[in-house]
Structures are given as structure tokens and as C-alpha cells.
């Protein structure tokens, strides 16, 4: 069936394809695409698919099991739908799953999503461009929603946000995905982070995430997901973690660690909050060509341990990233919804 396929090697494949560009006026029914940002100002889509009703997702067979569907806005800060048991049929694609459970408008003869439940992508009245992107198992999709088959256990998440502000390639809100899989995850703990490492290992095991210890500073295969645990002063030596010193277009996280080691949270339009001297963070980064790296870190070992203790599905659910303040209070990143 032309145009149908599956997203392969989601947890271990660092490469992504971005074949289409978003635009055009809305039209009801048809296929769907999702914009996948690349570069400083991301205006590229992650998907080009066939027509939704022309074959994909209409095959026979039992429906996949344990599938969830989340629809949100503004980097996950506003949830529109969260379905743990969405309507689903055998051989459905991500597109067909969306159409069964939400009202979908499309553009370009049904090739791209222009609106979900009446919330349109494109330029908003404030001049910012916000488009619909989708993630599967916590990773930005690498193909069109009409091409990606829904599989057992998939966590499908659509979010409308300004990807010109932050290039988000991975989120923590589908935990234990994408860390739970057939191959073990590389767990690497800073030497002084013994307590945080023990807590992280225990929480990962409780979520059925298989791990293997990786000596601190040792290199992992580019296709192997990593979990880095420790204080920022140690973790900052890692080339992927260092991206937190830069803007969100590089890191994909709505926060920056400044030159004094303080966490500066950003809101959903990029406004900076107060720099926090005591902080913890759980975030996922996925540079091009590499598997995902999860950061379970803090300003010191104590907050790193608190971040490790947050590795629970109920705590991370629906969050792009999670931050902790000096008292251990947990809150999502970005820091606040747009006004």
C-alpha cells in the first residue's frame, strides 16, 4: 500500500528526515504532515504523507495494544486531549489515529495538518508562527503521519508550538519511552553522584528500563540512548549536555544554564525568568545523528538525586522537560504558559 510504513529504530536512531514544508489554507479530511524543525529558524516539516482515506490505516487485523494519544499546545503546557485508550483500528497510521479521535483540518490537498480541534497552525495574531508537530515515544517523528504505522505501546503526542524558538527533538513526558526497549540504555553517573545514581538506577528499573553502566567520560555508541546523572559542574563537560549553555535552538530545552551555573527558565515565548542558584532538571536532548541523551542533573548532588527521584511516569507525564527548585518543588519547562 503506497505511502504506508512504520517509524523504525525510534529509541536508537539519531537521524531524522524532514521532507516537506508547511503552509496553505485549511481543508477538511485528507492526509497529514508534521513540521520538523531544523536549523536556527525551523520552518521545515517532518512529514509528507498520502491521502488519509485513500488506503493508509484502513487494513484489516487487530488494533495495536497499549496506545496513547496526547494533543497539546505551547510545548505541552496546555493539554487539549489525553487519551489512554483512544479509538483505534487494525493497521491504523498516526494520521488515522488522529482523525479517529479529533477534528482535523488539512492543507495542500490533504498533505499537511493545518488545524486540530479548530486550533490552526501558522502565524498567530502575536506574529509568531506555531505549527503542529508530532512525537512518537518521546521522539520527534522522522516521517509523515500517513506513512507511520501505529504499533503496540506507541505514545503519540501532537503539540502546537513555535519551533523557531526551540528545536525540540525529544521530550521526557512519554517516560519510560523512549528508554524502555530491547537494548539496554547507557547509564553514566558522575563520580560524586553516588546517591543520585542509585536513585536513578532504581527508578529506571521500576519503569522496566534496562541499563548498563557506562564509565563516566567514556563514549557510548551514537545509536545507544544515554542517561547522564550528576551535578552540573561534572555533566557540563559532556558535549551534548553543554548545549544547555546555548539557546534552545541548539538544546531543544526551554532553559539555559548561565556562566555561573544557574538555571534560567524560559516561558513558551522565550522570556527569561529569574536565574536559580539551586535547581534540578530532567530533560532530553537529541542532536542530529545521535540517539537521545537524558540529563538527570542539578546544581549539586542533592538536587541531582531529587531529579533522579522524579523519574516516574506520573511525574513526567505530558512535560517537555521538568525542573526542580531549591525546595524540590517540581514544575514543567517551559516555565509558564503564554498569556
Secondary-structure map with pairings?
Blueprint: E1 5-6, E2 27-28, E3 68-73, E4 78-83, H1 94-101, E5 104-107, E6 112-116, E7 119-120, E8 122-123, E9 129-136, E10 139-140, E11 148-149, E12 155-161, E13 185-189, H2 194-206, E14 211-213, E15 226-231, H3 232-235, H4 248-251, E16 255-257, E17 263-265, E18 280-285, E19 293-298, H5 301-309, H6 313-316, E20 321-324, E21 330-333
Helix pairs in contact: 2-5
Structure overview:
This protein has 339 residues and is α+β, with helices and mostly antiparallel strands. It has two domains: 5-161, Ferric Hydroxamate Uptake Protein, Chain A, domain 1, CATH 2.170.130; 185-333, Chitobiase, domain 2. It contains six helices and 21 strands. The protein has helices at 94-101, 194-206, 232-235, 248-251, 301-309, 313-316; strands at 5-6, 27-28, 68-73, 78-83, 104-107, 112-116, 119-120, 122-123, 129-136, 139-140, 148-149, 155-161, 185-189, 211-213, 226-231, 255-257, 263-265, 280-285, 293-298, 321-324, 330-333. The strands form five sheets. A seven-stranded mixed β-sheet has the order 14-13-15-19-18-20-21. Helix 2 (194-206) runs parallel beside helix 5. The relative contact order is 0.16.
Describe the structure concisely.
This protein is of the alpha+beta class. It has helices at residues 94-101, 194-206, 232-235, 248-251, 301-309, 313-316, and strands at residues 5-6, 27-28, 68-73, 78-83, 104-107, 112-116, 119-120, 122-123, 129-136, 139-140, 148-149, 155-161, 185-189, 211-213, 226-231, 255-257, 263-265, 280-285, 293-298, 321-324, 330-333.
